[in-house]
Amino acid sequence: MTIHKRSLLRAGLSISAALAGRASGITTAAEAEACDRPSVAGELSCEAAVIAAAADDFGHIIRQRPQAVLKPISAPDIARLIRWAGMRGLKVAARGQGHSTYGRATAAGGVVLDMTSMRTIHHVHSDRAVVDAGATWSAVLDTTLAHGLTPPVLPNYLDLSVGGTLAVGGIGGTTFRHGMVADNVLELQVVTGDGHERTCSAQANADLFDAVRAGLGQCAVITRATLRLVPAPERVRRCQLFYRDLGALSADQRTVLADGRFDALQGAIIGDGAGGWRYQLEGLAFYSGPSAAADNAILSGLSDERSAAAIVDATYVEDVHALAQLEQRLRSNGQWFNPHPWLLTFLPGSNAEPIASELLKGLTNADVGAFGRITYYPLRTTSVRAPLVRMPEEDIAFPFNLIRIPASDDRAEAERMVADNRALYERIRGAGGVKYPVSALPMSPADWKQHFGANWQLLHDAKRRYDPLGMLTPGYDVF
User: Fold this and answer.
1) CB 119 within 8 A of CB 139
2) What pLDDT does residue 292 have?
3) Is 432 left (phi over 0), alpha (psi -120 to 50) or beta?
């Protein structure tokens, strides 16, 4: 149902009246006027199918039904909705592509903002692009590449929304050099929890800028972002190297991090199908022109099992879209729609190898699935500057991520994995590690206070200032 701009109707009623009206078969404009609705130009829906979709996410673990879903057409639409919801004590959450894994982007009994309706790419300049929060990275990249430009950091999966990525930080293969996606945004337009439209950057409203980037949607809804751009390479030399054990992998990963020979660096621990593990370093060399650097120069001094190496040359476009092939395969076999109880963490560099080795003793190939993996590679924490992105208190950290892709829709098994995630997180936290917020595990306000550490006060104060009613993004249970 499309709700055109009008004054608030019958201010004492709630959205539940709209739901009751639909259930009773309201069909006329006069009958619809009996429901209290926000004065918005976007589409406000109480349809059962729309509500059900907004209650679920990519994790398929937590389902929380909102009362309504709004597809806003502008920031003023969002501001009106937030002010209207605030007067009625309703929670509001923004949802991009729905790739949360633990119900973080829904609002039980409240309103979900379906940001896919705001996906315009407005401007591309020589060093920046201005895009709506609902645009996907795939769409952004397709547009910027036409100008020979790219964001310096891209998430591995390009069908995430810009706003959703910035709200958690955003990590990619070039993070070791350029920081998080949130470190490469120049300006944000937002609607804060008090229903006001604001612009923030490092120069203007810097406290809000710092609270929104990786702030888990607690203070504002991102509506538009100005993203930094750099010249895009034409081609990529991708080197997948394999190792006999975790120690050999870790040593070479540290070597290539130190000498900077690769432009993107990642790695993984992959099930070998026989109960053991394979250890992989993945390094990318970007280039433009007729050829890349010789392989013997790129791989000099490394101790991998060279006969097992997979070295391919591709265009930059082909390479950044490589994960789409896995998505297609998982969709075709149905596993895309199974639960995804992922755990994403950062281990301190000083003891990453012994921590990872100990954790691996309690994990099996079945814990990640045939298409899953445990990502493991080093990055420099000094490249990460957004204050709410948590890293271990060391110069180097290793992401240790259980990318679980179960073979079946087994609810009991998914719940077991969530419980296992919590136990693993406790062990990692006790060893000086931290989590990446998109992980599928329950977190209490006390957990979040400990997670944010010294920067907890920054988020706490911004929440009181910009979302005084505590309306926004309740799924994280931060406050």
Assistant:
1) yes
2) 55
3) left
Residue 424 phi/psi, 5-degree rounding, is -65, -40
Rounded Cα–Cα distance for residues 122 and 179 (Å): 25
Question: Tokens 């998080």 — which residue?
Answer: 180
Structure tokens belonging to residue 233? 């390479």
What one-character DSSP code corresponds to residue 306?
G
* pLDDT digit string, tens, across residues 222-268: 999 999 999 999 999 999 999 999 999 999 999 999 999 999 999 99
Listed by start position, the domains of the chain span 15-115, 121-231+457-469, 235-441
Enter the CATH code of domain 121-231+457-469. 3.30.465.10
User: Is residue 318 classed as helix, strand or coil in its secondary structure?
Assistant: helix
| 12 to 23, 37, 84, 89: CA distances (angstroms) | 20, 11, 11, 12
Class of domain 235-441: alpha beta
CATH (one of 2.60.40.10, 3.30.43.10, 3.40.109.10, 2.160.10.10) for 15-115:
3.30.43.10
